Structures are given as C-alpha cells and as structure tokens.
Amino acid sequence: MRTSELAGRVGVNSETLRYYERRGLLEEPPRTPGGYRDYPLGTVGLLRFIKRAQELGFTLDEVEELLHLDAGGPDSCEVARALAEHRRSDLAARIRDLQRMHDSLAELAATCDLPRADRRCALLAAIDQEVGR
To answer: d(Cα 48, Cα 127) in Å, to the nearest integer?
Structure first.
C-alpha cells in the first residue's frame, strides 16, 4: 500500500512514516516500478502498536526497545515489565505534580471570592512573582 493510504489508515502524516523509517522503527518498504513506496499490509499493525505505546507515554526510544523485545523470549517480558513500571513511576510523579498545581490554583482562585476592598489578586501576584518583575 502506498504511503498516503497507510498514513490515512493509521492517522499519521507521510512525514511521520519517513521519520520512523529513518529511526529504524519501520523498514524501508520496496518500491513500485514507478518509484512509490509499497508498504506491506502488516505495517498497519506495527504503526498502531507504535502509536498506542506513545499514547501510554513511551518515548520512541522505548518503543524501539519494546519492538525488539517483542521478538524475544520469556526474558524479554521481564525487560518489558521493567519499562512499564518505570513509565508508571514517571506518571505517578507527574500526577502528584499536577495535583499540587491543581490545589494551588484552587486556593488562588478562592481568594477572588473575598470582597473587592479586602483582596489583592493572589493569582496575578503569584505569577508576577515567578516572572520576577
């Protein structure tokens, strides 16, 4: 299948496919007599795997490692699990950071409920302080 058809099926653009080829995530497909790339049908599944792994937060380097592990044996499962646990740990830390940011913004927004004469916009002051004016 041609580049545009493959890209459309998976929801990426043609440049993404060429980038994945350069990175080694996709093998360069054979060419038609007219010089067009002719991807095998199995490439759709491979690209869906790559996109799903990215949605789960894996970097392209980690996706490449997962692809190599997929062809391995039982030991590969342990390495894949270690990668997944590392990703989970990173996500947990990001969630904690986002929760702290959420709570801080809620506190700052709550000060807006004070009578006008009694308030100074803590949100604007906090942002201004970070800018270092």
So the answer is: 41
Cα(42)–Cα(106) distance, rounded to whole angstroms? 49
What are the Cα distances from residue 19, in Å, to 25, 75, 89, 124?
9, 30, 29, 42
Cross-strand partners of 31: 37
The residue behind tokens 């989970």 is 88
The reported pLDDT for the residue numbered 120 is 66
Q: Could you read off the pLDDT of 3-27 as tens digits, one per residue?
A: 999 999 999 999 999 999 999 999 9
**CB count in 10 Å sphere of residue 81:** 10
CB atoms within 10 A of CB 53: 19
pTM beyond cutoff 0.85: no
